[in-house]
Design goal:
mainly beta, OB fold (Dihydrolipoamide Acetyltransferase, E2P), five-stranded antiparallel beta sheet, 185 residues
Length: 185
C-alpha cells in the first residue's frame, strides 16, 4: 500500500481495477480539519484523464512497474509499434493511451516503456525532442524588432510557432509536453 502523500507525477497506482498514472499532485490545507490531496490521473487502459481527491493519510494500492528500453518502429491507425532490440519481441501501444505524445516519436529512437506484467502501460518521453523544419515562410530581413512568430511544419507533420529567423532545414528543439518551440538545435 502507498500513502497518498507519497504520490508524485509519474507514479502509477491501482484503484478499482484501473491502473492510474499521476500527472499532477496538489496538497491542499484549508483552515481547520485535515488536509486533502488532489491528483490529476490518467487511466492507462482507456486514456481518460480525471481528478481525484483523497484525505491525508489515505492509502492506495501500489503497482510494480518494470521499465524496458524499446525501439520505436512505426505507427498506424490503431497504435504505435515498438521492438525490444535484444529479443526482437514487438509490443503495440494503442494511440488513445499515448495521446499527443505519439506525434513526437521518431522512427529508430529508443524510449523507456513501463510494463505491468506483459502489458505495456505508458511511454516516458524526453522533455524536448529535435526536429527538422520542413515548411515555413521565409524570414524577412529587418522584421525582427519585436517577438514575432510564424507557423512552421516539422518533419513529423506537427505545426508549431517559431521565431522569424528559423528557415526550412533548420533543426529546432520542441517541448513534448506543450508542443512549443524552445530553441534552435
Amino acid at each position: 500500500m502507498l500513502v497518498v502523500s507519497e504520490l508524485r507525477a509519474g507514479t502509477i497506482f491501482q484503484e478499482d481495477g484501473n491502473l492510474l498514472l499521476v500527472q499532477s499532485y496538489e496538497h491542499v490545507k484549508l483552515g481547520r480539519g485535515s488536509a486533502t490531496i488532489k491528483v490529476k490521473v490518467k487511466n492507462l487502459r482507456s486514456g481518460s484523464i480525471t481528478e481525484k481527491s483523497f484525505i491525508n493519510g489515505a492509502k492506495v494500492q501500489d503497482v510494480q512497474v518494470l521499465k524496458k528500453e524499446m525501439q520505436y518502429l512505426y505507427k498506424d491507425d490503431e497504435g504505435s509499434y515498438f521492438m525490444n532490440p535484444d529479443t526482437y519481441e514487438q509490443v503495440t501501444i494503442p494511440l488513445k493511451i499515448l495521446g499527443a505524445e505519439a506525434t513526437f516519436l521518431k522512427e529508430g529512437d529508443t524510449y523507456p516503456i513501463s510494463f505491468h506484467g506483459d502489458e505495456a502501460l505508458s511511454i516516458v518521453m524526453p522533455p524536448k525532442v529535435e526536429l527538422v523544419v520542413t515548411d515555413t515562410a521565409p524570414g524577412i530581413k529587418g522584421n525582427s524588432a519585436s517577438n514575432v512568430f510564424k507557423d512552421a511544419t516539422l518533419e513529423n507533420g506537427f505545426t508549431t510557432k517559431v521565431p522569424l529567423f528559423i528557415n526550412v532545414g533548420d533543426k529546432i528543439r520542441v517541448d513534448t509536453r506543450t508542443g512549443a518551440y524552445t530553441e534552435r538545435a
